[in-house]
């Protein structure tokens, strides 16, 4: 046989009729001029036949059903929302939870569980308890001094009533310090919200699954359902969704800038995000849709990167954020092709003027989409809203506040980026029951004449907290990672000093006590 | 969060703590959860003992002018640089409201005042010296008062409180000098909790 090619590996098909061997030839050609020095490995005809058979089997038996499943999944994921499949699933889950609750209540008695979770209308009859049963998640009730990073204005009202120092003046500080050690406002915002009843996930409670046979069965069935049925399905949808998104945004990006492109971008974007939300069984209820942002800046409370998905399923936004690598980076690059998102390098984001300038340019362009910003700057656990960074509120323009509240019974969406990696977080999300949330679009707000941007930020924050039923906190979300500042102590030291009647440095006379 | 702070307390331990402190088992469970949360709050290698830096993750405590001394109260109880759960609960038990007809060993008026006295008494010699009072005053006022002003306040306070004129304040003199209601001021409003185990009826 003739083997041609450069020195090295050769692959050929020997079809020489005179030769005994027909088939694949794999060899190493050491000397191109001297074909006799070729060492060949022959693939026997038998092996070839086996390979042939396998290929045929794959093509005829395995692939078509796989394709059918694939198409069904695609169709379901796209239409799942309009068919109301996910909503029905969520309703069904609620019934199961209630069932489970009834079992727990029977086992432990009503005192065990929070009143809300028992059927409404059933009044409790606590004959053995005369005082009111405060069954709550709180450990203590704080009705006196609570220290914060900024002093409320009404704390200074006692300023003009100065008194002499007493040994007992420290009692307030000590008591509030001890209260803070037992339960403080801030540290509990960076871990998953505690549930008051069980939702059949071991990650929320470790004791319940072995309490009764029925509960155990519920839990096992749920486990199998989540890990062996829902999880593979969701991963599939995620992968397909990513491919779909990258393709669609690429196609849209090829068009020249025009109104058509923007319209296409909107519909494509909503479709892609809707599809991806199937990967998490996202069930979202949008309220007050007359306030949907069309331009300006949209601000929302931040719990997880899924917030973006939640909001983008209903409306199109241009996003702002730091450039990420890896998983999120793929999305960022894909989205940027189709629309003018604002991604910053890490170094650039520290330059506040550059950031503000880019935001301002975007806001003032009437053709551009509304910008989506999370002023907290970090993920909080959806029980409270923490300090809004004032940068967004200095740009001007109309602010559209949005409140997002997740229902933790179906799966806690909070991501603590310092404790969990992105991959393990997504894994947790995909093995939860579903992600159920409510979104409220609030009426637009603008900064008043005499208002500082910090006050404006606090006003917007208060509105969002009120609508979402969240606690409004003054503390900075950055406390998740960084230590509290010692300087915050100074204002309390100053306040205390002002209240003290001090002797004039020059005089030695005793000043009369003022009662 | 729930599954991480699984009950590592045995029932006997809970009963012991109940007897010692007067907390209900539900409250002990809550305090235990809090103890464990402070333990692995953003820390990689968590033990079952609290160190000073673990207390300092609480922003309210860092903002508190007397924060350092409050934390010291725990380490005084443990006599080392780590605090275990029993010591943690014991110190907090001082702040239970005084309940008539109940276990009031740790939260009697005298015990409450003694905890405050120990916060003033920096060197643990059983007396408050003028220097110690000056240090505490400095913690509470910072740079807002001059040294001279602080000295004057210390002098005046000693004149009033130090009855036997030995230039130091003993615990008895301290108790007399506190005019405010220690029980009301030094009580934390612990709420009733659900029982921690099915067999417990609280």
Write the layout of secondary structure elements.
The complex is a heterodimer of chains A (515) and B (202).
Chain A: E1 8-14, E2 23-29, E3 38-42, H1 45-83, H2 85-108, E4 140-141, H3 171-182, H4 213-254, H5 259-277, E5 282-287, E6 297-300, H6 306-312, E7 318-322, H7 326-338, E8 342-344, H8 346-349, H9 352-364, E9 371-373, E10 384-385, H10 391-394, E11 399-407, H11 422-430, E12 435-441, H12 453-468, E13 471-472, H13 488-499
Parallel strand pairs in A: 5-12, 6-9, 6-11, 7-8, 7-9, 10-13
Antiparallel strand pairs in A: 1-2, 2-3, 11-12
Helix pairs in contact in A: 1-5, 4-5, 4-7
Chain B: H1 11-21, H2 25-39, H3 52-55, H4 59-63, H5 67-78, H6 85-93, H7 109-120, H8 130-141, H9 147-161, H10 171-177, H11 182-185, E1 189-190
Task: Give an account of the 3D structure.
- The complex is a heterodimer of chains A (515) and B (202).
- Chain A has helices at 45-83, 85-108, 171-182, 213-254, 259-277, 306-312, 326-338, 346-349, 352-364, 391-394, 422-430, 453-468, 488-499, and strands at 8-14, 23-29, 38-42, 140-141, 282-287, 297-300, 318-322, 342-344, 371-373, 384-385, 399-407, 435-441, 471-472.
- In chain A, 42% of the residues lie in helices and 12% in strands.
- In chain A, the strands form 3 sheets. A 7-stranded mixed β-sheet of chain A has the order 5-12-11-6-9-7-8, sandwiched between helices. Chain A has a 3-stranded antiparallel β-sheet with strand order 1-2-3, with no helix packed on it.
- Chain A is built from 13 helices and 13 strands.
- In chain A, helix 1 (45-83) crosses helix 5, helix 4 runs antiparallel to helix 5 (259-277) and helix 4 (213-254) crosses helix 7 (326-338).
- In chain A, helix 7 links the parallel strand 7 and strand 8 (342-344).
- Helices cover 52% and strands 1% of the residues of chain B.
- The longest helix of chain B is centred in the first third of the chain and has 15 residues, at 25-39.
- The radius of gyration of chain B is 19 Å and the shape is globular.
- At the A-B interface, strand 4, helix 3 and helix 13 of A face helix 2, helix 4, helix 5, helix 7 and helix 8 of B.
- Chain A: InterPro entries: LPCAT1-like (IPR045252), Plipid/glycerol_acylTrfase (IPR002123).
- Chain A: One of its GO terms (biological process) is triglyceride biosynthetic process.
- Chain A: Belongs to the 1-acyl-sn-glycerol-3-phosphate acyltransferase family.
- Chain A: The chain crosses the membrane at residues 53-79, 211-229, 235-255, 425-443.
